[in-house]
Design goal:
six-stranded antiparallel beta sheet; elongated; alpha+beta
């Protein structure tokens, strides 16, 4: 019997039934989608951790290179690599900002490189272990970042007010160069760092005011800023000749024996010399204190021929000569010591005749009578007749330095532009060869006399003495190459005494954006310029009332100080006026830095600079450190990538 059912195929009916049966399809589809979903979620989690690690790593890299570049400062690098102390600082800041194991990271690395422009670049990397992504064969993510820090200088004016007094030729303990030569090298290093770090299209200008008793600024002044005539403490001839008070000096010469007899000295008696002890320090001696017979010796002089004159060339004089004849008779006595024995001796003349010349020396020239006092002269040729140092314009003796009247103290008004035809506002050329200080003589005798004096005496000409020296020329603000800087520094030499006020006054004048050089110093449209004064000295105020400085001879001119009435010393007056000038400089939005080199800071210097802007340097290394700190403060430290 045969069946009427179709034949059965085992594979196809199962698949057909499965196709017709929809039960359980969702579970299958979910299982099929699970792996992509896990990859998406796990990747998001791991990528989030990686992103956080990368951001933190970038911050740490930036912190490291910033700290390293700040530490490098203005240091000179000779091997084109990051110095070990700088690298250590950068590594420490990196480690603080990205600690080992942060976000579960491993293999933390950080390295730095010194670039040609003195920027410090860095590279940091870590491994971020994955979690869910491990299922797909990714056990870690490699994260790396780059960073770079540079010390840039924007538009900048730097005025260096430099003490070039005589003490700058000294060498500080431990140094091989003088103070002035050490300063020159430090300035070269400072210039190199600033020039190497300035941004493109940035203008950095440098100015200099060497100061001592004076400042040399004449070449910077316009003709109508200078007076046409001025009065100096000098002297002039009166036209009167005074006979020399030493006329009539007489002496005898050319003795010749012509007759009679004279016995030699003969001992007539002896006695023991006295011994005198004066103490262990003063010693002892023998003396002859005994008596001797009275002399019976006499002589008679008579003229021998006619007198005549003779010219003596050196020293210039006319000799008035009279021949003489002397007849001598009688006995002379004397006592001489021979060891510890005193010998009384005698010699006798019998009509003993000698001829000789009696000479009277009369100077060939009469003495000039001088009129010492204020002498007015034309100064129209001052540009060719002087070195360029000046006397200050009008001022007054200030009693209250907290309330200075700048309408009278025109020297302390650093922005005042002189008015043509108004001498009180103008400067005066310095003529040192005109200066004579009455009534002080070369042996230091005498006292100041403000009145005029007529005399043949020679008073001191202190205008040409060392403490009145004129320093090297000041320089206005200008861009400078290294060669131009070296050429200028070569002009600086150490001479003169220490007057701090005039250095601060003229440093401010040459730097102020609103003063006599406003046309060159004012900010260009849309560009702001930073202004800094670096004021350096190696000593305390050291004025001399005899010196010829920017206020004339203080002991005579008495424009800012009166030795007879002032309660302050001249040094105190100079320091107080320095303080006023410093405040005037800072009022022009100028940052003042004060450096004491080989000396100590005074309270006034520290107050002038302000907190954190004064330095003491006992040697060249510390001086260089101070200038590096100043350069860092002037710069803008920033991240470039």
């Amino acid at each position: 019997m045969t069946s009427s059912r179709p034949p059965q195929h085992h594979g196809a009916p199962f698949l057909s039934r499965l196709a017709r049966d929809t039960g359980g399809n969702v579970a299958v589809m979910l299982a099929a989608a699970l792996f992509p979903l896990l990859a998406l979620i796990g990747g998001g989690v791991d990528m989030g951790r990686g992103y956080l690690a990368q951001v933190r790593l970038q911050q740490a890299c930036d912190a490291g290179v910033l700290a390293a570049r700040q530490r490098l400062g203005a240091s000179a690098v000779v091997d084109n690599s990051v110095p070990s102390d700088v690298a250590s600082t950068g590594q420490r800041f990196f480690n603080i900002n990205f600690r080992d194991g942060t976000y579960g990271t491993k293999s933390r690395k950080f390295s730095m490189t010194l670039e040609n422009d003195y920027a410090i670049s860095g590279k940091a990397s870590v491994d971020v272990p994955t979690t869910l992504m491990k299922v797909f064969g990714h056990s870690k993510m490699d994260i790396s970042v780059d960073c770079e820090a540079v010390l840039n200088f924007s538009n900048l004016d730097v005025m260096m007010v430099v003490d070039t007094t005589g003490s700058m030729r000294h060498t500080n303990p431990g140094d091989s160069l003088s103070r002035l030569d050490s300063l020159k090298q430090t300035i070269r290093n400072f210039h190199a760092q600033v020039e190497g770090g300035k941004a493109p299209s940035t203008q950095v200008r440098y100015g200099f005011v060497p100061y001592a008793t004076n400042v040399n600024v004449g070449h910077l002044l316009k003709d109508d800023w200078v007076v046409n005539e001025w009065t100096y403490q000098g002297r002039e001839k009166t036209g009167v000749l005074i006979p020399n008070g030493s006329a009539g000096v007489t002496y005898n010469r050319n003795w010749t024996s012509v007759g009679g007899s004279r016995t030699p000295w003969t001992t007539v008696s002896t006695y023991k010399a006295s011994f005198n002890f004066f103490g262990f320090l003063d010693g002892s001696s023998y003396e002859c204190n005994g008596s001797q017979p009275e002399n019976t010796w006499t002589y008679t002089d008579t003229n021998n021929g006619l007198p005549y004159t003779q010219l003596q060339e050196s020293p210039p004089a006319v000799l008035y000569i009279q021949g003489k004849r002397r007849v001598q008779n009688g006995t002379r006595y004397r006592t001489v010591r021979n060891g510890t024995t005193c010998e009384v001796q005698s010699a006798s003349d019998t009509n003993y005749i000698q001829t000789f010349e009696e000479v009277t020396e009369v100077p060939a020239f009469d003495n000039t009578q001088w009129l010492y006092g204020p002498i007015t002269r034309s100064v129209s040729n001052w540009r060719t007749e002087t070195e360029g140092c000046i006397e200050e314009r009008d001022t007054y003796q200030i009693a209250d330095y907290d309330n200075v009247d700048f309408s009278r103290a025109l020297d302390l008004d650093i922005d005042l532009v002189p008015s043509a035809g108004n001498p009180s506002t103008q400067w005066r050329p310095r003529y040192p060869e005109e200066i004579y200080v009455r009534k002080i003589k070369h042996d230091d005798s005498g006292v100041f006399e403000t009145k005029k004096v007529r005399t043949i005496d020679e008073y001191v000409d202190t205008g040409t003495w060392w403490f009145s020296d004129c320093p090297a020329r000041a320089q206005k603000l200008q861009e400078m190459s290294s060669d131009e800087l070296n050429n200028y520094l070569d002009t600086l030499e150490p001479f003169g005494a220490t007057y701090h006020d005039i250095g601060m006054i003229w440093g401010g004048r040459l730097l102020s954006p609103t003063g006599i050089f406003a046309g060159e110093n004012a900010d260009p449209d849309g560009q702001q310029r930073a202004r800094h004064m670096i004021w350096l000295t190696d000593g305390q105020t050291e004025p001399y009332d005899l010196a010829y400085g920017v206020y004339g001879v203080d002991g005579l001119d008495r424009r800012r100080w009166d030795p007879d009435t002032s309660s302050d010393t001249l040094a105190q007056v100079v320091e107080n006026r320095f303080g006023v000038a410093c405040e005037q400089v800072k009022n022009r939005n100028i940052t003042v830095w004060v450096v004491a080199f080989g000396t100590g800071l005074t309270d006034l210097m520290t107050q002038c600079a302000g907190p954190g802007r004064s330095f003491e340097a006992s040697n060249a290394e510390e001086l260089n450190d101070a200038f590096e700190a100043i350069a860092r403060a002037m710069s803008e430290l920033r991240i470039t990538q």
